[in-house]
């Protein structure tokens, strides 16, 4: 499976890049940040846009990895001011919704990579599944969940791209 957008015949409109939400704790461990940065980098290399909650920890690391690889990032912020965004968010969106912005983070993505996390991440996972978004886990989730688990960041990124492709074509989500 190639982690890139489908080819289009000459003259046809180009499909927009895939949007992949990367979720995880704002106060993340060094290992979770390492995983998130790698996921962000692999997603950028595949041409995807990384969507996060725009703050620190996993969100910042995924955005940094994506930006450093030449990718694009969007951050849905909980407050009224975009100045709270980490410096790696290209398009900060102030929602003034507090934690309720979690629904926007996962709705905006066509698939979700969850890295570690805590209660906020669990809420995003639940919302994503309720909305029909595929979710892959990377790292150690706070509780045992019946979801696909990736062993490496590249595997999580490729799986998310594949699921986003299926989401666009109306296919059913699949597990590993």
What does this molecule look like?
The protein is an alpha/beta fold and 176 residues long. It has one domain (19-165): Rossmann fold (3-Layer(aba) Sandwich), CATH 3.40.50. The chain is 36% helix and 18% strand. The chain is built from five helices and seven strands. The protein has helices spanning 30-45, 58-68, 102-108, 119-130, 153-169; strands at 19-24, 49-52, 72-77, 91-94, 111-115, 135-138, 149-150. It has a seven-stranded parallel β-sheet, with helices on both faces. Helix 1 links the parallel strand 1 and strand 2 (49-52). The longest helix has 17 residues, at 153-169. It is globular.
Features:
seven-stranded parallel β-sheet; 176 residues; alpha/beta; Rossmann fold; disordered N terminus; 7 strands
What is the CATH T-level topology? Rossmann fold
- In which range does the helix fraction lie? 25-40%
- How many discrete structural domains? 1
* CATH classification class: Alpha Beta
Specify the overall morphology. Answer: globular
Order of secondary-structure elements = EHEHEEHEHEEH
Radius of gyration: 15 Å
Main beta sheet, described?
7 strands, parallel
Q: Quickly count the helices.
A: 5
Q: In angstroms, what separates the terminal alpha carbons?
A: 13 Å
As a percent range, the share of strand residues is 15-25%
Number of beta-strand segments: 7
Low-confidence segments, given as residue ranges, are 1-5
């Amino acid at each position: 499976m190639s982690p890139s957008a489908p080819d289009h015949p000459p003259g046809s409109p180009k499909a927009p890049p895939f949007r992949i939400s990367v979720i995880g704790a704002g106060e993340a461990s060094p290992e979770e940040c390492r995983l998130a940065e790698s996921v962000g980098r692999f997603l950028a290399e595949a041409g995807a846009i990384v969507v996060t909650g725009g703050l620190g920890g996993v969100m910042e690391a995924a955005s940094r990895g994506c930006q450093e690889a030449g990718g694009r990032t969007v951050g849905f912020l909980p407050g009224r001011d975009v100045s709270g965004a980490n410096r790696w968010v290209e398009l900060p969106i102030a929602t003034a919704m507090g934690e309720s912005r979690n629904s926007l983070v996962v709705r905006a993505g066509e698939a979700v990579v969850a890295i570690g996390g805590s209660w906020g991440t669990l809420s995003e996972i639940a919302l994503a599944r309720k909305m029909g978004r595929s979710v892959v886990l990377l790292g150690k989730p706070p509780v045992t969940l019946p979801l696909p688990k990736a062993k490496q960041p590249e595997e999580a990124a490729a799986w998310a791209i594949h699921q986003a492709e299926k989401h666009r074509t109306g296919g059913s989500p699949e597990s590993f």
